[in-house]
């Protein structure tokens, strides 16, 4: 598999610091091309969220370099990746939480990461309300489920999706890495196909932009080069700002 990709991050119109962090890595291995992308949203309203998100990026970047080569020798690679990520999420949740206690601060981060193997098989690991999407020329499919209070209320039938979209509690997370007693990540698997795009984004990127606007700007046929991908990400970030999105705004677009 070959990939093209672009990313863009903006502090937004209100915050003084950008608490979002991201990482994109690609490597040629004995098992072919391996592609990895991770987006972490440091928690707005929690002090030092940028430290928490940057910590996760640093840890998983190190994992890609040091641990993944050994994991690629396993018979069931994605099983091994999932076990490794779950262990790291638990240990980093404890480590970041202890740091916060020692310094009398609260800090945490979402986690949405994807690893794709040469045969196109992928695994997504997810904590919080950043999202992963699959985008074709005809559809936009959300691949992760928000771990938020309003998402739980929608599942229980107490809120409609339309009500949840404007509910003032929409940013209340049920868990995040560093600020939860325990972390239970969600994992999903699938296969990427040539001609698909994949989007990782923080909640600030998608609050005020519709799926129709995602499809109009981020579809594979409309993004033939990395420069065009970048232009469209910038366009949507600026659109969010024009619509008065107050959070940091970050996205990664990956073309297969």
Tell me the number of strands: 10
Mean pLDDT: 95
Widest beta sheet: strand line-up: 1-10-9-6-7
CATH architecture: 4-Layer Sandwich
**What is the H/E string?**
EEEHHHEEEEHHEEHHHE
Please indicate the count of domains. Answer: 1
Short summary of the structure?
The chain is an alpha+beta fold. It is built from eight helices and ten strands.
Q: Mind explaining what this structure looks like?
A:
The radius of gyration is 18 Å and the shape is globular. α7 packs antiparallel against α8 (226-242). It contains eight helices and ten strands. It has one domain (4-255): Phosphatase 2c, domain 1 (4-Layer Sandwich), CATH 3.60.40.10. The strands form two sheets. Strands 1-10-9-6-7 form a five-stranded antiparallel β-sheet. A five-stranded antiparallel β-sheet has the order 2-3-4-5-8, with helices on one face. The chain starts with a strand and ends with a strand. It is 35% helix and 26% strand. The protein is α+β, with helices and mostly antiparallel strands and 256 residues long. The mean pLDDT is 95.
């Amino acid at each position: 598999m070959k990939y093209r990709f672009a990313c863009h991050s903006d502090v937004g119109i209100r915050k003084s610091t950008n608490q979002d962090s991201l990482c994109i890595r690609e490597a040629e291995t004995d098992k072919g091309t391996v592609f990895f992308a991770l987006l972490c949203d440091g928690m707005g309203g929690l002090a030092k969220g940028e430290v928490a998100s940057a910590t996760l990026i640093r840890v998983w970047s190190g994992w890609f370099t040091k641990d993944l080569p050994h994991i690629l020798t396993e018979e069931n690679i994605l099983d091994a990746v999932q076990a490794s990520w779950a262990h790291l999420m638990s240990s980093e949740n404890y480590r970041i939480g202890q740091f916060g206690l020692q310094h009398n601060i609260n800090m945490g981060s979402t986690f949405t990461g994807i690893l794709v193997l040469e045969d196109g098989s992928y695994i997504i690991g997810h904590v919080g309300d950043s999202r992963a999407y699959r985008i074709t020329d005809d559809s936009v499919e959300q691949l992760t489920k928000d771990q938020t209070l309003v998402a739980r209320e929608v599942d229980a039938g107490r809120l409609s999706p339309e009500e949840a979209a404007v509910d003032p509690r929409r940013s209340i997370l049920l868990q995040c890495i560093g600020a939860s007693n325990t972390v239970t990540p969600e994992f999903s698997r699938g296969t990427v196909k040539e001609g698909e795009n994949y989007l990782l984004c923080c909640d600030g990127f998608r609050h005020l932009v519709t799926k129709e606007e995602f499809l109009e700007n981020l579809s594979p046929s409309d993004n033939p080069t990395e420069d065009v991908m970048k232009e469209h990400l910038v366009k949507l970030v600026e659109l969010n700002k024009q619509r008065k999105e107050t959070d940091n705004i970050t996205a990664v677009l990956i073309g297969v």
